[in-house]
């Protein structure tokens, strides 16, 4: 896979793309990465990429022409990229979206800055993505978050000892629940003991404990996930009790 970014701060990306799992995957040729500087597609002395909004208002907007010229020129060589614009007005990023993007041969991430982008530039977008309901100073960090989530799904990226294939999250094998609590040595730490069942060696009991723990944690921390989680009838009854206990009987209070 080839991942490219277009932004006014191309230097932000390199440390992330060359560290840890992303760095190793890149070295191994599992993905290639290039960061382009939007200012390379300006034509004035000051390399201007922003301007005042028509109709007035605060802040500056990114101009459409440099973005158009850059995306066209980057896309003109090689396979046509899937073009993603990063904006807080985009669709919320999810694991399902990461899985979808991981199937593309080439991704081009366009990162906005300032107060936004001239709406006409979005004509180039195959999709618009936001990474959550808060405002960042620019799309670069969002593009790195999405790159991380996508690259770790590529075959071989996590190495032999790890796999993303049957991990949990909303689309994984645990049926849309948060992952259960995990422990390693020491068996007791600061007065807190590891649950006895995990030391018992009884795999059936361990599995049952983990399932119940996953339901408990999801009810406590992410009750919004319960309605679409795959639960048996008795698990759903348990979940309703837990939600009532943690949040009061109304989901409204979740
Ligand atoms: Cl993609 N960009 C900006 N500027 N803020 C965000 C975001 C993106 N996603 C969440 N907040």
UniProtKB/TrEMBL annotation:
It is found in: Cytoplasm. Gene3D superfamilies: 3.40.1280.10, tRNA(m1g37)methyltransferase, domain 2. GO terms for molecular function: tRNA (guanine(37)-N1)-methyltransferase activity. Its main location: cytoplasm. It catalyses: guanosine(37) in tRNA + S-adenosyl-L-methionine = N(1)-methylguanosine(37) in tRNA + S-adenosyl-L-homocysteine + H(+). It comes from Enorma massiliensis. Residues 1-227 form the tRNA methyltransferase TRMD/TRM10-type domain. GO terms for cellular component: cytosol. This is tRNA (guanine-N(1)-)-methyltransferase. Homodimer. Keywords: Cytoplasm, Methyltransferase, S-adenosyl-L-methionine, Transferase, tRNA processing. S-adenosyl-L-methionine binds at residues 112, 131-136. The gene is trmD. Specifically methylates guanosine-37 in various tRNAs. It comes from the Bacteria.
């Amino acid at each position: 896979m080839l991942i490219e970014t277009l932004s006014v701060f191309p230097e932000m990306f390199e440390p992330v793309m060359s560290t840890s799992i992303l760095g190793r995957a890149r070295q191994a040729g599992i993905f290639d990465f290039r960061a382009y500087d939007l200012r390379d597609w300006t034509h004035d002395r000051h390399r201007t990429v922003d301007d005042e909004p028509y109709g007035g208002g605060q802040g500056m907007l990114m101009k459409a022409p440099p973005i158009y010229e850059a995306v066209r020129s980057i896309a003109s060589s090689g396979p046509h990229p899937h073009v993603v614009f990063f904006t807080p007005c985009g669709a919320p990023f999810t694991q399902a979206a990461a899985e979808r993007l991981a199937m593309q041969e080439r991704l081009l991430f366009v990162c906005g800055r300032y107060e936004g982008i001239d709406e006409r530039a979005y004509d180039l977008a195959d999709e618009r993505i936001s990474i959550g309901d808060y405002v960042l100073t620019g799309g670069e960090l969002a593009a790195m978050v999405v790159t991380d989530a996508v690259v770790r799904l590529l075959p071989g990226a996590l190495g032999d000892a790890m796999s993303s294939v049957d991990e949990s999250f909303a689309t994984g094998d645990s049926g849309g629940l948060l992952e259960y609590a995990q422990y390693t040595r020491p068996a007791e730490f600061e007065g807190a003991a590891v649950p006895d069942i995990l030391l018992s060696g009884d795999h059936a009991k361990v599995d049952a404990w983990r399932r119940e723990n996953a339901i408990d944690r999801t009810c406590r921390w992410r009750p919004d996930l319960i309605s679409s989680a795959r639960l048996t009838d008795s698990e759903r009854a348990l979940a309703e009790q837990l939600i009532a206990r943690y949040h009061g009987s109304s989901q409204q209070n979740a």
